[in-house]
Amino acid sequence: MSDPSYEIVIGLEVHVQLQTATKLFCRCSTRFGAPPNTQTCPVCIGLPGSLPVMNRQAFALALKTAVALNCQIPGFTKWDRKQYYYPDLPKGYQISQFDLPMSQHGYLEINDAKGAFAPKRVGILRAHLEEDAGKSMHDELAGKADSRIDLNRTGTPLLEIVSQPDMRSPQEARAYLTELKLLLTYLGVSDCNMQEGSLRVDANINLHVATSQGTVATPIVEVKNMNSFRAVERAMAFEATRQFDVWKDTRIALGAPGGHKTTRGWDEQAQMTRPQRQKEESSDYRYFPDPDLAPVIVTDQQLDAVRADLGELPAALRTRLQTEWGIDAYDADVIVNQGRAFVDYFLALANISGDAKRASNWMQQDVLRVLNERALTIDLFPVSSTSLAQLLKTVQQGELDTSRARDVFNAMAESGDSMPQAMQSLGIQAVHGDELADLCRELLEANPSVVADVQAGKDKAIGALIGQAKRRNPNANPNQVRQLCLELIREQGSAQE
Amino acid sequence: MSLTRQQIVKVSLLARLRLRDDELDRMTDQLDQVVSYMDLLAEVDTEDVEPMAHAVEQTNVFAEDRELPSLDREAALSNSPKRDEQCYRVPAVLGD
Ligand SMILES: [Zn+2]
To answer: Does A150 sit within 8 Å of B89, measured CB to CB?
Structure first.
């Protein structure tokens, strides 16, 4: 896959918008898609004399996330001003956290159920709470003379989650993002909608190249503008190859002249990264504590309460599905990755049907197929877990074969009908054991040659009866007919002896 | 510690202030006095004093997450030197 002569080193910086009704320091709405500049106030557009006050819910959501990321939570945290000039930053500074972030030194475990990489723990350097900037739009019509500024987003709460440079392949980077998003979704702290900018990713990547003089690190590149996890994976793969080519060409190492950090943007259309202009003097933010905001103290009791309130997180749930329900690791992964509501549906289905394995198969194949086809989420799925459990039981008892059951399922999913209703409208009848036994007896009586063949050891001869059974009763389960006929012939044989 | 003229040039660039030569001289002198005052403060023995993050001893000041009316857009945009119906207008932002 990757060149063995180098190792890829990736660290990710994720900005996630916390799901609050109002902004971090004022009570303007955070609703997405409102007309420009209709959700601003003196605080978020930085008018003189205004005073920011911390949103209680934003801090609570940030704390919950930090705890779920196994971070250390210091007892004392404060906010700082990060100064830079940009038209979408009306105050001339962003309120962020510098030397005393609300959390640090955590980790997130990543795994690939198909074994693409070994399970590993990705370190979290820090997670801190800060405000978002506004949006600048480039007005093509005005001959690119002006940029238009919308400050609706200004002051929206963001949690910045900075990983350690612990990822060693584009796949690991993607897995980290997928697992992080899943965790955030389980916690209910963000909708993680990348299209609406609720989750943004920047990546730092370089290579550790093996040389005869030992390992050499190449200059770090920060990659921006990646609009999907797949784009992150591709951008990382592209960068690794590009950086190795540059290294072979120039032999410039990290920190050597010309080896400083640079910024590149991912071009989705061209599937490549391109150099970006660096913000002038960008490293000199002159942080200092924001005198308008009071620091926050977090007590151990508070942390205990947050921990108690976390709920069951994806990693624990995967384990539980395996140990309590006998589902294998891969299946547990698929189910848990669909989100909590999907897991709850599965648990209900497994519980009522009493057959977790079958429930898992049906959820992954049939339920997921319908959800994908119709772009539905499980909470809008028209078949209740009770209804589906009834269908699975009918299949389990052999009263319906899988292909007929699938027809019934599709009808139920289409119409929202219960199982009996769907079967009735399809003209399908469950065949009870007695009924089937009678049918088989009749068939055996009518076909003595088949019975003789089977008694002579040719079990395959039964095949001739299955077609007949289907003609007499289209609902007859072929496997069951085969099974029953064989049993009846054996009984006859032993009765004769 | 004393400030150099070069440092003042850098700080004025960071603050987006275009200073004339005589202003630079004056600022160098004035800011140097401010920084010297910090030197004076630095002489105080703070060996056993906890660093503080805020001048007021107040912590955990929160507001509830309940929406309040925002500014009317006209009012919000009214002080802007350049605007249109919906937005502030600024000189083109490059390479975003
Ligand atoms: Zn506001």
So the answer is: no
What is the per-residue pLDDT for B96? 44
Task: Note the pLDDT tens digit of each residue in A119-135.
Answer: 999 999 999 999 999 99
**Contact between chains at A37 and B88 (C-beta distance less than 8 A):** yes
Q: What whole-number distance in Å separates Cα of residue B2 and Cα of residue B64?
A: 46
Task: Calculate how far, in angstroms, residue A41's C-alpha sits from the geometric centre of ligand 1.
Answer: 4
Crossing angle between the packed helical segments A56-68 and A300-308, to the nearest 10 degrees: 70
CB contact under 8 A, A147 and B89: yes
Burial of A304 (C-beta count, 10 Å sphere; 0-12/13-18/19+): exposed
Write the CB contacts of A314 (distance below 8 Å, at least 6 apart in sequence): A179, A182, A183, A186, A336, A337
pLDDT at position A434: 76
Does some domain include residue B19? Answer: yes
Q: Single out the residue of A11, A14, A122, A103 nearest to residue A62, CA to CA.
A: A103
Whole-angstrom distance, CA of residue A17 vs CA of residue A58? 10
Residue B53 lies in a domain: no
3-state secondary structure of A426: helix
pTM of the model: 0.86
Containing domain of residue B10, as a range? Answer: 5-42
- pLDDT band for position A141 (cuts 50, 70, 90): low
Terminal CA-to-CA distance of chain A, rounded, Å? 67
**Is-contact B3 B11, C-beta < 8 A?**
no
Give the separation between CA A439 and CA A441, rounded to whole angstroms: 6
CATH number of the domain at B10, please. 1.10.20
Question: Domains (ranges, CATH) in chain A?
Answer: 6-281 (no CATH), 312-426 (no CATH), 433-496 (1.10.10)
Cβ–Cβ of B90/A136 closer than 8 Å?
yes
What residues contact A150, with CB distance under 8 A and at least 6 apart? A36, A37, A134, A135, A136, A137, B86, B87
Write down the ipTM of this complex. 0.90
Mean pLDDT of A111-119: 89
CB A335 within 8 A of CB A321: yes
Residue A222's beta-bridge partner residues? A204, A263
| Chain A residues closer than 8 Å to B59 by CB | 294-297
Task: Tell me if B14 is assigned to some domain.
Answer: yes
Burial readout A233-262 (b: 16 or more C-beta within 10 A, e: otherwise): bbbbbbbbeebbeebeeeebbeeeeebeee
pLDDT-wise least confident of A221-235, A356-370, A401-415, A416-430: A416-430
Residue A40 DSSP class: -
Chain A, 269 to 328: residues with Cβ < 8 Å from chain B are 276-277, 281, 284, 286, 289, 291, 293-297
Contact status of A224 with chain B (Cβ, < 8 Å): no
Please provide the DSSP assignment of A216-245 as one string.
EEPPPEEEEEE-SHHHHHHHHHHHHHHHHH
Domain tally for chain B? 1
> A205 in helix, strand or coil?
strand
Q: Does the pLDDT value for residue B58 go beyond 80?
A: yes
